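In the current project phase, our protein records have gained a C-alpha cell line. A sample record follows, to show the layout:
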Amino acid sequence: MQTPRHRLLIAFVFISLPLATILSQAQAGAPPRANGSASGLDLTLLNRAVDPCTDFYQFACGGWLAANAIPSDRPRWGRFDELQERNDEILRRVQESAAISGDASARKIGDYYATCMDEAAIERRGVTPLDPDLKNIAALTAVNRLPELLAELHKIGVNAFFTFSSEPDMKNASLVIAGADQGGMGLPDRDYYFRDDARSVDIRKQYVEHVTKLLTLIGTPPARAGAEAEAVMRVESALAKAALDRVSRRDPEKVYHKLTPAEVQAITPNFDWSRYLRGLGAPAITAINVSEPEFFKTFNQLVATTPVDDLQTYLRWHLLHANAFILSKAFVDENFHFYSATLQGIEEQRPRWKRCVSYVDSDLGEALGQSFVKETFGPQAKSDMLKMVADVEGALERDINTLDWMTDATRQQALAKLHSTANKIGYPDQWRDYSALSIERGDAVGNSHRANTFEVHRQLNKIGKAVDKNEWHMTPPTVNAYYNPLENNINFPAGILQPPFYGAGRDAAINYGGAGAVIGHELTHGFDDQGRRFDANGNLKDWWTPDDAAAYQQRSSCIANQYSGFTAIDDVKLNGKLTLGENTADNGGLRLALMAYLGSDAAKNAATIEGFTPEQRVFLGWAGVWCENRRPEYERLQAQTNPHSPGRYRVNGVLSNMPEFQKAFSCRSDAPMVNQSACRVW
C-alpha cells in the first residue's frame, strides 16, 4: 500500500469521509422515499423531544445516534461510514471477479486482492520478504553510504527522516518542481513527543513498548530491543523538535523555500544529495521546495552525530513500521494494538477483505475505479452535479458582489478567481496507465513495494514539466471531495455521489442542504485562510488590499475563537486555528447552498412538508449528513491532529451563526443555538 506522498496543499471536506453530490429538482409532493417520508428525509434520524433551538444536532441526529452504536472494528460510526460500507461491498465484488478474469488489467486488480487475502501464504513467508532490505540496513557501516540506502527505502514507501517528491511551484503553479518535506516520525503528530499531560506521557511509553515488540519479532533479544526502541525515540524526538506544528504549516509562506540543489546541499553538508537523487532515479533538478529548512538542518546534525548503530536501528524500525500491515499475523496484530486500539480505542480489526479492498484502491485506484464507475455513476449524475455546481457558484458570485466589507479592487480579483475555478466530477477524463506496474500472485509485500516504487517514479517524472490539471489526487471510489488551491479546481469523486447527500426524487431542499452545502464548502475553500492566499491561476500571491485583508482577518478570527471554545472531550478543546479553514468552508458552504436553493425553480411555491418549511428542510439536510458516534480515544486524537471539527460542531457551530436558522425555527434571541456574537466571513 502506498504511504502518504509529499504534502499537497489541498483542502478536503472531511479526511477519510465523503462529501457530496447531486441536484434533484424534485418538487413538493414527490413520492414517499425514506421511511414513508414525502420529502425523502429519513424521519428516524430525528429526536423530536429535543428543542431545535437548544441543540439542533441532537434534534436532527438524536434518533440516529441512539440507534447506531459504533461497530467494534471502527473508531467512529457516521453516515459517511454507511456510504463507505456500501462502496466497499461493490469494490469487493469487482476485485473477486477480477481474480478470475482473463483481462490483463483486471487480473492485476484480482491478483493483488487474492494475494492480500491469502493469509496462509503470508504467514508462511513471515518476515523473509524484508530480508534483502534488512541486510542492506545492516550493511550501513558509515554515514556516507546513507544517501543510496535512504533512496532505496523511500522508493518502497519507508517514511524515514524526510519525504521527497514533486509538487507545483507555489509561485509559478503551472510548473512542477521537486519538493522535500519533514518526515520520519512514528507518532501521529510532532506535539505527541512533547506534551506533558498524563495521556501523552502514557502514549509515549506505549509507543516505545510497541517499537520494542516489533523489533523482537525479527529476532532482536528483548533487552536489546528495548534499548533500540529508546534510540528510535531519541532520533524521532529530535526530528519532531525541528518540525513545524500543524497550525504553522497552514501558512503557505512558511512551507515555501525554493532552493537550488547547491543551496540544499549547503544546508545539509553531511548528506550527499546527488547520490540520493541518482539512487531515487530522479530527473535533472534545478529547484527544490524545501518546506522547512530548519528541519533539514537538524537532519544534517543527526546524520553527523548519531551513532551508525542507532541509524541502523531507526531505519530498521521504519522498514517494519511501513510494512507491518502486510506481514504475518504477529506484525499485523501488534500494529493494530498500538495504532488502532491504543490511539483510537478500536476493539477489533476490520475484516481482512475490507482491509485488502482498501489496499487495492490505494495502489491500483484508477484501474479499480473504472469498474466502480461503470456500476455506480451514470451520465445523468455528472450532468446533475454540474448543474448544482453552477447554481452554488452563482450564489457565491452574488455574495461577493454584495459584501459590504470588501472594496471593489479586491472584489474584482475574487470574482476573477471564482470564474476561473474548474470543476472535476466523478472520474478522470484519461485513466492512469498501470502497464509498467508488475503485480505477482503470491507476493504480497513485493506487490506493495512495486506499487510504491511505481508511484514514486510517476511523481518524479513530473518534475520540470507543466502541471496536469486533469490529474486526480483521489481515486474514483473515494468517499471524499477536495479543493486544490494550486490548480483552483473542485473535485468530487464518484464514490461520494450517492445518498445521504443526494437522492433522486427527493425534495430539492434536502438535496441542497446535503449536496449543495458540500459544493459550497469546496468552493469556499478557495477563499478560506489558506485558499485566499492563491490567485485565479493557483499562484501564491497577495491580491488583497491591506484594508480588505485586515477585514478578512477580523472575521476569520471570530470563527477561530468561537470553535476554540468548543470542548472535544474532557479537558481537550478544539484548536480553532487548526480547524479554521474547514470551519470557514462549513459556514460559507451552507449559506451558499441556502442562497442557491432559494434562488432556484425548486423553491418557487415550495410547500411545508411533514411540518417542516423549505428553509427548515435545508438545515435538516445539512445536519443529517453529519450524524456520528465517536470513541473517546478517537475524539482526543482528532482534536489534536484533524483540521475538521466533530460533526456536532459542524452542525451547531454553523447554524448558530446564521440569522436564517434563527428565523426559520423562530428561536429566541437568547436561545443556545443563537450565537450572540455571530461570525461570518462569506
The chain has two domains: 20-90+378-430+470-664, 127-326.
